[in-house]
């Protein structure tokens, strides 16, 4: 297989931390290191340090909307970025977000005539509901989202449930299920690293430890978890629960835990970027609590499995796909009493939880190396289908409007550049004339002084 030059676009990327940012980072790392060439194109973050990556990262202007949706929103019509992208000679364009990134991907396709793949990672109907007020505006936002996705040449989803959610939004086209992997290797870390990661936290030996890692948002099921823990505490069970992560609802979640009297038993740890330390926490815990029906893939479930940690999941959720109850995980109803009953049972049988974790490690684990190789093997098929015009015709008019708008911005930018050039030339000419006049004036004064003598 020829080495491909891949453009990867996403609206979130480090220093923003979420599942999709992690996915794009691993796509770029593995493609650049083992398979071909990859460039990440993503919005600007003030604190970003892209020198830490072994692949190029191209940033474009952004607005801070983190309070509404948890990350910065890209402005996908920067002339310099568009020109820089056009020069890269990409073979394929792979967007991982159906908003700004896909708008930019479509504009790039119009310029370089390369196919666009879009991976649908997240249930955007929930993000839209959280960010957009008013039913009509939500409907328009969903329509824009679906039209943007439908304008791509091939659509991938990270799970069957993600595909069902896409259908719910109104998408009627085909899609390919292309699951994500995890970047943690199978196996446990050294006990010394576990001790380092957990130092300073009250985690008594023999007391069950529950864990959550991810964005601290209510829609991740935090209320179910906290209510279940309150019920467990009320029954006299001792335990510890650790939440690791940041997010827009973190302060509210902490306050709610305090209101339930869970201080001391429920601990909150800031986001951890060191993957080895995250791995150490997985290895220290006895159960991973993830009652989310929002996530389309639940990478953290497979991260936990990599470390031999079983998960508690909502039956029928995307995160529970491929998980067998009592064998590779534990499935509950989407409510606190169901979780509390399970936790009470497992607090008295931690050995069962550990056995389930070991089976999860063997049966549901998928590495990023394998996941990205599967995707990379699909890229030539996409390119061939695109060249042979096997995909449905995308909305040429909409692409034309995007292209025209971007071209207008480029033209405006060039006009400004021309204006600056003319202005600089005039100023240079003015300075030269002024200097000449000054020199001539000085020469005349000097001559007059000589004549007076």
Feature tags:
globular, Rossmann fold, alpha/beta, 14% strand, 16 helices, 453 residues
Q: Would you write up a description of this structure?
A:
The chain has 453 residues and is of the alpha/beta class. 50% of the residues lie in helices and 14% in strands. It has helices at 19-35, 66-69, 79-86, 100-112, 124-131, 135-150, 160-169, 191-198, 222-234, 250-259, 275-284, 299-306, 336-347, 350-363, 368-387, 396-452; strands at residues 5-9, 37-43, 57-60, 62-64, 72-74, 92-95, 116-120, 154-157, 176-177, 209-213, 240-244, 266-269, 287-290, 311-314, 330-332. It is globular, with a radius of gyration of 28 Å.
Furnish the topology, listing elements before pairings.
Layout: E1 5-9, H1 19-35, E2 37-43, E3 57-60, E4 62-64, H2 66-69, E5 72-74, H3 79-86, E6 92-95, H4 100-112, E7 116-120, H5 124-131, H6 135-150, E8 154-157, H7 160-169, E9 176-177, H8 191-198, E10 209-213, H9 222-234, E11 240-244, H10 250-259, E12 266-269, H11 275-284, E13 287-290, H12 299-306, E14 311-314, E15 330-332, H13 336-347, H14 350-363, H15 368-387, H16 396-452
Parallel strand pairs: 1-2, 1-6, 2-3, 6-7, 7-8, 8-9, 10-11, 10-13, 11-12, 13-14, 14-15
Antiparallel strand pairs: 4-5
Helix pairs in contact: 1-15, 4-16, 8-11, 9-13, 12-14
């Amino acid at each position: 297989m020829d080495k491909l030059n891949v453009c990867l676009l996403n609206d979130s990327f480090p220093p923003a931390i979420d599942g999709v940012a992690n996915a794009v980072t691993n796509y770029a790392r593995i493609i650049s290191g083992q398979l071909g060439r990859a460039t990440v194109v993503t919005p600007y973050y003030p604190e970003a340090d892209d020198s830490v990556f072994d692949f190029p990262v191209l940033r474009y202007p952004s607005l801070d909307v983190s309070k509404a949706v948890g990350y910065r929103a890209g402005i996908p019509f920067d002339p310099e970025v568009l020109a820089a992208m056009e020069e890269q000679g990409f073979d394929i364009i792979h967007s991982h977000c159906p908003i700004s990134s896909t708008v930019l991907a479509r504009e790039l396709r119009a310029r370089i005539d390369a196919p666009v793949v879009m991976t649908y990672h997240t249930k955007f109907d929930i993000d839209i509901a959280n960010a957009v007020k008013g039913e009509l505006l939500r409907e328009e936002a969903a329509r824009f989202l679906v039209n943007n996705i439908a304008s791509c040449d091939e659509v991938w989803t990270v799970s069957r449930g993600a595909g069902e959610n896409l259908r719910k939004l109104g998408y009627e086209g085909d899609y390919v299920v292309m699951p994500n992997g995890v970047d943690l290797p199978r196996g446990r870390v050294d006990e010394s690293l576990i001790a380092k990661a957990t130092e300073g936290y009250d985690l008594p030996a023999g007391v069950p430890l529950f864990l959550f890692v991810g964005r601290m948002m209510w829609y991740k099921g935090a209320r179910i978890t906290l209510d279940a823990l309150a019920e467990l505490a009320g029954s006299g069970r001792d335990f510890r629960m650790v939440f690791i992560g940041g997010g827009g609802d973190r302060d509210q979640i902490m306050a709610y835990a305090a209101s339930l009297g869970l201080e001391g038993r429920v601990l909150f740890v800031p986001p951890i970027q060191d993957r080895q330390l995250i791995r150490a926490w997985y290895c220290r815990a006895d159960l991973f609590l993830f009652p989310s029906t929002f996530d389309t893939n639940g990478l953290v479930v497979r991260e936990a499995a990599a470390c031999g940690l079983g998960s508690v999941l909502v039956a029928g959720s995307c995160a529970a796909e491929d998980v067998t109850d009592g064998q590779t995980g534990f499935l509950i109803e989407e409510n606190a009493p169901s979780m509390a009953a399970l936790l009470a049972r497992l607090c008295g049988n931690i050995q069962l939880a550990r056995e389930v974790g070991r089976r999860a490690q063997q049966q549901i684990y998928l590495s990023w190396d394998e996941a990205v190789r599967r995707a990379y093997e699909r890229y030539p098929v996409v390119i061939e289908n695109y060249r042979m015009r096997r995909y449905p015709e995308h909305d040429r008019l909409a692409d034309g409007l995007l292209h025209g708008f971007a071209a207008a911005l480029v033209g405006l930018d060039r006009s400004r550049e021309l204006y600056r050039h003319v202005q600089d030339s005039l100023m240079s000419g003015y300075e030269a004339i002024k200097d000449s006049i000054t020199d001539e004036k000085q020469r005349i004064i000097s001559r007059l002084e000589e004549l007076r003598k």
